[in-house]
C-alpha cells in the first residue's frame, strides 16, 4: 500500500540463503556449485535483477534439487507474478523441507500476493513454528491478518514493522495510553502519504493535546497543530501514527482529520468530470524492490484514454509530475497543483476519481469522494480481497483479471462509470 516502504520481504530476500563468501567468478562458469549459484542469485535479487536471479536459481536447482534452492526459484517467480509456477516450486520445496520456517515464509508471501490471505496466515504461522526469520514472518502474518479483515490481531502484529525498520529515536517516552492531562503528545507520520491519510482518521480521537508531525507536502492539509517531520517540537510523549489504533481502539470508521480549505474553479461544467492518477510515485525512486513494486502498481496512461469513448466524460489529471495534456493531445486536462491541498481542492470538483493504488486515492477516499481504485493482481492489504473495503465507504475496487492486464481492469471501470452516469 505504501509508496516508501517495501511490502513484506520473505526470508529469501533478506537473509542470504546460504552463507558463502562473495563470488568472483561469472554465472556462465559451468563448475559453479548450487551453493555458489544461489549466492549469485541472491546478489542479483538484492540489486533488483529478478530475471537474472531466476536464471541463477534455476541453475542451482539443476545442480542440486533441495528445499532451499526450489524455494528461491519460487520466490523469484512470485516477484515476476508467475504464480502458477511459484506455487509448483514452493510445494515441491516443502516436500523436501517440511520443517523449514524460511520455506514456509516464502509460501506465505506467494499466497498473500494471490489474495489468498487465510491460507497465507496458516503458512506464516507454520513459518514461526519452524523457526522462520521472525521479524519478517511476523510482519507478513500481520499483513495477511489485515488483508483478511482481522484488524484486532493484524494491527497488533503490525508493530513488527519496527523490527524490520526501526523508528525514529526520541528522548521522550512512547505513549501507551496514559492520561495526557495538560501534557502534549507528538504523533509522527510514517511510511507513505497514503498511510498518513488513511490513519489520520484516528487523530480526532486523541483525548488531549497533540502535535502531528507529517511529511512536508501534506502539512497544509492539516490544522495549526501540524509540523513537518524532523522539525523540532516540544512534547511529553510520542506515538507512531499507525500505532494509534492499538491505544484508541481498532474501530476504523472514518473521522475527517482535515478538510479542503480552498475552492478552485472548474472549467468543464456540464461534463462528467473524472480525475485520474495512473502512476505510483514509488515506481520512480527507492530500492530496487520498491521501484519494482511501484511500477507494477502503475497503469499506462493510454488505458485511461478509453474512458474518453464515453459520451460526456472529461478527464482531468491529478498526477503531480507528468503533463497529461501534452501527452494526450489535450484529451486530458492538466490541473495545476502545488501540493496535496491543491489536489484535495480539485478532487472536490470531480464527479469521480479513478486512480491506481497510490497516495491520491487515499486522499480522495478520506475526503469521501466517489472513487475507483485500479489494483494489480497483488493488491495491498488495505484493499482486502473483495470489491469494497471497510476503510473507505465510497471506493469501488477493480482488479486486473490477470497479471499486467490493465485494459481488462479498465473495461470493468468503464462499466461502473456508465452505471454512475445513468443514475
Oligomer: single chain
Helix content: 40-55%
- What is the number of helical segments per DSSP (H or I, 4+ residues)? 18
Mean pLDDT over all positions: 88
Share of β-strand residues: 5-15%
> How are the strands of the biggest sheet laid out side by side?
7-6-5-8-9-10
Number of strands: 10
Radius of gyration (Å): 23 Å
Name the poorly predicted regions: 1-21
Backbone shape: globular
Structure write-up:
There is one protein chain. This protein is an alpha/beta fold and 423 residues long. It contains 18 helices and 10 strands. The strands form 2 sheets. The protein has a 6-stranded parallel β-sheet, sandwiched between helices. A 4-stranded parallel β-sheet has the order 3-2-1-4, with no helix packed on it. α15 (324-327) links the parallel β6 and β7 (332-334). α4 packs antiparallel against α5 and α6 (101-113) packs antiparallel against α7 (117-129). The longest helix is centred in the C-terminal third of the chain and has 17 residues, at 406-422. Mean pLDDT is 88; it is low at 1-21.
Amino acid at each position: 500500500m505504501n509508496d516508501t516502504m517495501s511490502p513484506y520481504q520473505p526470508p529469501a530476500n533478506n537473509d542470504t540463503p546460504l552463507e558463502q563468501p562473495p563470488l568472483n567468478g561469472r554465472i556462465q562458469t559451468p563448475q559453479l556449485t548450487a551453493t555458489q549459484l544461489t549466492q549469485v542469485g541472491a546478489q542479483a535479487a538484492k540489486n533488483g535483477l529478478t530475471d537474472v536471479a531466476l536464471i541463477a536459481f534455476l541453475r542451482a536447482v539443476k545442480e542440486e534439487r533441495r528445499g532451499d534452492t526450489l524455494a528461491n526459484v519460487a520466490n523469484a517467480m512470485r516477484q515476476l507474478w508467475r504464480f502458477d509456477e511459484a506455487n509448483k516450486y514452493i510445494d515441491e520445496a516443502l516436500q523436501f523441507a517440511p520443517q523449514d520456517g524460511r520455506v514456509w515464509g516464502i509460501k506465505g508471501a506467494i499466497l498473500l500476493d494471490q489474495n489468498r490471505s487465510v491460507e497465507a496466515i496458516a503458512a506464516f504461522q507454520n513459518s514461526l513454528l519452524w523457526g522462520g526469520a521472525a521479524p519478517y514472518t511476523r510482519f507478513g502474518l500481520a499483513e495477511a491478518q489485515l488483508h483478511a479483515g482481522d484488524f484486532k490481531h493484524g494491527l497488533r502484529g503490525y508493530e513488527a514493522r519496527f523490527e524490520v525498520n526501526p523508528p525514529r529515536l526520541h528522548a521522550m517516552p512512547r505513549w501507551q495510553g496514559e492520561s495526557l492531562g495538560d501534557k502534549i503528545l507528538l504523533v509522527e507520520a510514517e511510511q507513505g502519504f497514503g498511510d498518513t491519510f488513511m490513519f489520520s482518521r484516528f487523530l480526532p480521537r486523541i483525548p488531549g493535546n497533540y502535535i502531528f508531525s507529517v511529511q512536508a507536502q501534506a502539512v497544509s492539509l492539516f490544522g495549526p497543530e501540524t509540523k513537518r517531520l524532523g522539525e523540532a517540537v516540544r512534547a511529553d510523549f510520542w506515538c507512531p501514527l499507525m500505532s494509534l489504533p492499538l491505544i484508541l481502539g481498532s474501530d476504523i470508521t472514518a473521522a475527517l482529520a482535515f478538510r479542503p480549505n480552498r475552492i478552485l474553479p472548474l472549467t468543464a461544467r456540464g461534463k462528467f468530470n473524472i480525475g485520474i492518477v495512473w502512476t505510483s510515485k514509488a515506481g520512480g525512486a527507492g530500492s530496487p524492490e520498491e521501484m519494482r513494486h511501484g511500477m507494477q502498481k502503475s497503469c499506462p496512461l493510454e488505458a485511461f484514454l478509453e474512458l474518453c469513448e464515453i459520451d460526456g466524460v472529461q478527464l482531468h489529471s491529478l498526477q503531480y509530475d507528468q503533463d497529461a495534456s501534452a501527452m494526450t493531445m489535450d484529451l486530458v486536462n492538466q490541473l495545476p497543483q502545488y501540493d496535496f491541498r491543491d489536489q484535495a481542492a480539485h478532487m472536490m470538483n470531480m464527479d469521480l476519481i479513478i486512480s491506481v493504488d497510490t497516495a491520491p486515492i487515499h486522499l480522495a477516499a478520506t475526503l469521501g469522494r466517489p472513487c475507483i481504485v485500479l489494483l494489480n493482481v497483488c493488491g495491498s492489504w488495505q484493499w482486502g480481497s473483495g470489491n469494497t473495503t471497510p476503510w473507505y465507504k465510497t471506493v469501488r475496487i477493480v482488479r486486473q483479471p490477470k497479471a499486467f492486464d490493465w485494459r481488462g481492469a479498465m473495461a470493468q471501470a468503464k462499466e461502473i462509470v456508465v452505471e454512475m452516469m445513468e443514475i
